[in-house]
Amino acid sequence: MAFADILGQERALSPLRRMLARRELPPALIFAGPQGVGKTKAALELAKALNCEAQSDDACGLCPSCVQADKGLSMDTQLIDAEYQARLKLKEKKGEGEPDEALGEKDLETLVAKQTDIKIDTIRHVLGTLAKSSFLGSWKIAALENAHLLNKPAANAMLKSLEEPPPRTLWILITHQDERLLPTIRSRCRRVRFGPLSEALVRRVLAEQGRQGPEADDAARLSGGSVSRALALLEGGCPEPEEWLNDPLAPFALADKLPRELHLSRPAVKEHLLRMAGRLRGGYASARVRAALREFAVLRRALDANASPQLVLTLAALTLQSVPPAERP
Ligand SMILES: [Zn+2]
Known about the structure:
Elements: H1 10-22, E1 28-32, H2 39-50, H3 64-70, E2 77-80, H4 82-94, H5 105-114, H6 120-131, E3 140-144, H7 152-163, E4 169-175, H8 183-186, E5 190-193, H9 199-208, H10 214-222, H11 227-236, H12 250-256, H13 262-279, H14 287-304, H15 309-322
Parallel strand pairs: 1-4, 1-5, 2-3, 3-4
Helix pairs in contact: 4-5, 6-7, 9-10, 10-11, 11-13, 12-15, 13-14, 13-15, 14-15
Zinc ion (ZN) is lined by residues 52-54, 59-60, 62-63, 65-66.
């Protein structure tokens, strides 16, 4: 893997490569753009290239530093996501110094699902590791997934580090909702914009993962240029409301079938909401239909504000079922 393998994002990558070639980077970057278009991959590649011994505008993939990074063993790069925070919490519970293997994987999975914001303790932990200079004078990189989930105290703790950054440190704030970041944070970061992928490229990535055929083509077409959304469509199996509208248990069964990962279940529920609203198109004369459409809009906002996709889907399906058949268009 290298920058050269990240497809369809030349506009985002070429300024990064220029910065890399000169080793001149701002203390923080924001990688903004839709979900499932390669932002996290690009962040990890940037980190790898920064510490590559070849010192060019891309990672060589062969030097010891690149090899470590490819194995996910780089000591200098941290990917801060829900799992990172959940692991910190588990360690806290079980006492410092416990090896990771001692932490129950089941406990971890439950905890990961519960991480709905990025907390100050997590940021403090990251700051601690950034402050430790590495043996070889290499760069320290913290890539923060879903950076819009930083809560206020955590964002303020990070702000200090952005004002007086230790040398050779880089924050990469990855987000599909950069408007939710504090203006004080945004103003200190350089924004790199990632765009949606072409339908053909999504189809190609799906094919590389062994997903081909008419279903995969449909998913690519409906994905809006996002690989994760296409996968969610394939895995979440978003049936048309016609297939379940009259089954009283469907609202619960649909929610059960959602993928467990938030980044997959959320786009799947968005797709469900679109299909449900589509089912009521043309029925505006009915007050019940109008109320249902308003409810879908409220649920869509709740989803964006981190409500459980399972819950949102169940409520939406119940809402659609509550419109009497005679009033459905
Ligand atoms: Zn290298």
